[in-house]
Each structure stands twice: as C-alpha cells, then as structure tokens.
Design a protein that fits this description.
The protein is α+β, with helices and mostly antiparallel strands. The protein contains eleven helices and 14 strands. α4 crosses α5 (about 90-100). The radius of gyration is 23 Å and the shape is globular.
Amino acid sequence: MPFKSFVRGIGKISKKKSGTRHKLRRGRAHITPEASLSSLPGSSTVQIEQRQWENLPPELLVDIIQRVESREQCWPGRRDVVACASVCRSWREITKHIVKIPEHCGFLTFPISLKQPGPRDTPIQCFIRRDRATSTFRLYMGLCPGLSGELSKLLLAAKQVRRATGIDFVISLVGDDFSRSSNKYVGKVRSNFLGTKFNIFDSQPPEDSIACSRCRSCQKTHLEKVPSRVTMSNYNTAKISYQLNVLRTRGPRRMQCTMHSIPISIIEERETAPTPMAFTNCLEHSSSLLDSTGIRPQAGSDSTGNCTTLKSMPYAPLVLKNKAPRWHEQLQCWCLNFKGRVTVASVKNFQLVAAVEPSRNVTVADQENVILQFGKIGKDIFTMDYRYPLSAFQAFAICLSSFDTKLVCE
C-alpha cells in the first residue's frame, strides 16, 4: 500500500471515530477521548478497527509516525500527525513521545503547544485578524492572509468585553465559544480604567506538577461535594504597563512587560523556561478550593473575587521593554526594522527585547534579540512573530493589550 494512501486511511479512521463520539465532551488537545464506546451506535465496528491498529508492532508503529511527522511540517498537512494521535491510546502515547516541543522543532502541533515556549533561533510567524463588528481577534498561523488564504490555521481567538472599570479580552481555543466555563477557555487579559496597565491571567497554574498532585489527592476524598461544571481558574502570570504621556509629546508608546512565570535566569544563564506538557484541569474540580459557605472562589483570587498574583515567585522575573525606534529625517516618522513583516505605520507597532541591568551577565546580542514583534500590514490585519521564551498564548495576550485605546499614552 502506498504511504500516502496509508496516511489517508488513518485520517478516515480518526474521522469515523470522532463522528461516532460527537456526543462526548471533547478534550483540550482535540484528541479522541479515551471513554468507552460500548453504549454508542456503531461502536462494535469502531472497536474492531481500533484493535487492528493497536496490534501493530511497536517498531513499525514508531517508524510510521516518524515518517508522517517528518513529512508534514506545516498546516494543513500537520493535521495528519494529530490524526495519528487520534487512532487509539498506543498511537497517542507514541505520537506524543515523537512530536517535539516548539522550542526544539519550531512547529505547533497540539493545543498544548500554544502554552509552550517558541523556538530559540527562528521566530514563529503568525498574523492577527480583527473583526470590529463582533469585537473579536483571531490568531492564525502563517505569514499573512494573502499567502495562507483559507489554509490558515486558527490558533487562538479573543473577544473584547467592556466592563465598568476596564476591558477584558477573553481568550479561547475556538472562535465561537468564549465562556469561562468552557474547556476551550485558556485565559484572559484585563485592563484598568485608563488602559495603561494590563494583567495576563492564565488558566494553567504556573507550578503545574505541584498543583496537579495536590488536586489529585483532594479529588479522591471530596469530589462528590464539587459542582460538575465550575468556572475555570485564573492565575496572574504577567503584567503590562504603558508609560503615561502627560505632556502629549510626539512619539511611540512605551511599554514594559513583567513575566511573573518566566525567570530572568533563562536569559542570563540560558536555563530552560517553564514548559507545560499537558493542560491542567484538576484544579477545576478541586474541593479544597471550597470556602466555608460551600462556594468555590476563583483560584488566584482574593475574597472579593478579584484576580491577583498566585504567590510571590522565588526568582527575579523576566522583564521585557519595547525597543526604542529611531527618527527618520526623510520620512519624518519613527522607524524600526521589522525585516519586511510590517508595512503600515501605526502607534500599535512594537518590538520587545529583554530589559536587563548593566550588572547582569547578558551579552549585547542577547539584549538586542527581538523576542516579540507586532505590527500592521493592512486594515484590521496585523503580524505577530514570537520566539523563546514566550509562548503563543503569552505573545497573543501582550499584543491584545495594544488594541485597547490609550488616550493618556499617545
């Protein structure tokens, strides 16, 4: 059997299984759930086909998935790798072992890749499309809409929600479900009244392993006391501040990002940034978070329900600042070298670099290395390029803060 036909057969098996299980709740990773199929129509046929694929020799299975993974290095062909992980449990475990994290391979494959740091050398290039009518923002994988077209891969979506004291950007894995009770919810960005300070809240706890182990022990004892559907938790993982421009002087915005979940040592000593390997849903059902009245407050929140920092970190956080532009005499404007990725002048355009003190052991090249750049290329179309140590979620959240109106900063 030709290899292409074999891959197509895997995709058909995956689609057939997902169609049979359409009533089951999908997981965050968009991989077929490991629930029983005995009660669903047509389950006997699916189980027979699944046993046939499970009985493949491990050596052959590893070779097949490695060939698929190395052959499909971009979307939409990358979905064949996801299809391999959707065949059965053994295929899923081997696929997760073979597929590397974005830091090492530079690809985004599973949804958890959006929470993992990007590659160190070459940035991952994306673009953001703004819909003014629905106040939504969609992040796509690709150079630009003109080159990617309908083949663009939707990574994240955000919806702008106005409050009395500020604005929230609710971030989801899909473009039509922004409920915080949904398993597609991944975090949010909240601003103050003036739009000068923003906080990034992540549904993933910073200390993943400690939180999970604590939750599993609590689930066994008190699971029956917890509601079956509760609001996802929020953890304050970053803070963004824009400098006030009281004198209304001409110039670009000045911003600073404090990443509470990323230590500065990854720049100084080239350590590894925190890399979650799976979405943590255990805190969603932890009865240890119930208060004396039986109501579950938000994790990372105070008694009034306002989100706060989870706890003080034992390390100095990474601080990012916007790269200072230069004044172009002929064009009579502020300019930055975006290497062709930005074509329209806008006050929203920026480049972020690491802000380090002179006493720190950081080379000049590392200080000038652009970690995140964002800029306009057309009406409601913006490019976003990010690299290590930021993740796609963190980069997207920082860029969302640039869309909010800042009358006192420009």
